[in-house]
Amino acid sequence: MLEIISLNMYETAALAVVVLFLGLQIKKMIPLLEKYCIPSAVLGGLVISIVNCCFYKAGFVFTTSDSIEKLCMVIFFTAIGFQIDFSLIKRSISTFMILLLGVVVLIICQNALCLFMASTFNFDSLTAFTVGSISMAGGSGITEQFGDFLEDLRLANGKNMSFGICTLGIIVSGLIGGPLGRYLILKYKLKPASEKIYVEKNSDAADANLPFSTKLAKACFQMIFVVGIGSAACDLFATIGASIPYYIGTMLIAIILRNLSIKTGRYTFYTSELNYLGGIGLSLYLAMDFMALALWQLNYINMVQIAVFIAQFVLLMFFVFFIVYIMTGRDYDAAVLSASSIGVGMGGPSSSVATLMVITRKYGSSFKTYLLLPIVGFMLADPINSVIISYFLRLI
């Protein structure tokens, strides 16, 4: 019988710090990993996941608390909101529409590819469908939602098979997103033009003489206040049937308040210090997410799934290069958005954000990607995916 050791939120946070330091040490020992933009959280998280998998084989396993993980994600996206102005939103509308349409087309193609391969190579259609948008674009959330339904349709271990592909997708996308972004940036000699927005609009200049500790304390208070207001707004919308994730709601509130402060000039938001807080939150969130990977679920993957997964990988590369990168402008923002989109199509938010973090820390910020990725890739993709999956399941 499997013994489960549940870590509380404090123990989970402590282990996340270990993951980060472990990832940094691995990159120091293997400089090639730093060169090709492999995220530290991915490396450290995989090591802890492998250890946990060994524990699983021995009859016990540890599970982590997701409460602090969600808080860290909220802190990161709230900090992003403090760095986005309305002019950027106006300039991003066309890119938003292209990306949203692209995600819809990708989800449809992922499911159509499963049925095509099942028909062409005489694969079991339900087995092939476990490598569709359920586990690829859907990630763990959609996999949890539809996994039991696959088993109800006669597919034994359908949920575990889907989770196995989801886990594989997170690992692959977490490892290749950074190198792909680096390739595009270096090949086309791209520069982060949007960096100018932050410098010109920064309202911290009037308080430049304040000690860093004072500004950091004020930034903490601002963060706590906005997170509280944003979460309350999300709860209010939930009462009328509109479901908005907390990290989206708090980011939007931060955008509104930050732009009001710029327009009126009556209040200063300490964006540099808020960015520090966001970076800490992001690092911890990624570490917690990757160290929680259940690698033993890979045991449920079979050769049919591997064949379809390879085809899905080729499809995703086509989508990234010819839809996202070319259609969104072939500039620095397009390159970062393309690399981050790998996680959108294969695995979910954690690998997308890990890629975004490692590229922007090395080559410069991409505020357009900060804005569009969570809205299109996380908030809108899941409900669209659920509708499309439900339609395709009727065809099987």
TrEMBL record:
Keywords annotated in UniProt: Membrane, Transmembrane, Transmembrane helix
GO annotation terms (biological process): L-glutamate transmembrane transport
Pfam families in UniProt: Glt_symporter (PF03616)
Presence of the UniProt keyword Cell membrane in the record: no
Listed transmembrane segments: 6-24, 36-62, 68-89, 96-118, 161-185, 244-262, 274-298, 304-327, 334-359, 371-393
Domain of life, per lineage: Bacteria
InterPro entries noted in UniProt: GltS
Recorded GO CC terms: membrane
MF terms in GO: glutamate:sodium symporter activity
Protein name: Glutamate:Na+ symporter, ESS family
Annotated source species: Succinivibrio dextrinosolvens DSM 3072
Lineage of producing organism: Bacteria, Pseudomonadati, Pseudomonadota, Gammaproteobacteria, Aeromonadales
